């Protein structure tokens, strides 16, 4: 899942070397904290949050096999 988020995020930003994903595991869920270069935050969020919502949808769909809930947070 972490690799999927990295591939998507690196394709969208101007500074792919600054893309980082941190995994925070809880009892019933896993949170992926995506951090990018401050100049690229707008590209990850998109207009009205459409790109961020799409990333969350893809990751949630790919995580159906796991029995945990998956969240993606964008951290600057």
From TrEMBL:
The UniProt entry lists the main location of this chain as: cytoplasm
Subcellular localization(s) per the UniProt record: Cytoplasm
By its UniProt entry, which CDD domains does this protein fall under? KH-II_YlqC-like
InterPro entries, from UniProt?
A: KH_dom-like_a/b, KH_sf_prok-type, KhpA
What the protein does? Answer: A probable RNA chaperone. Forms a complex with KhpB which binds to cellular RNA and controls its expression. Plays a role in peptidoglycan (PG) homeostasis and cell length regulation.
Note the HAMAP family from the entry: KhpA (MF_00088)
Q: What is this protein called?
A: RNA-binding protein KhpA
Which species is listed as the source? Paenibacillus chartarius
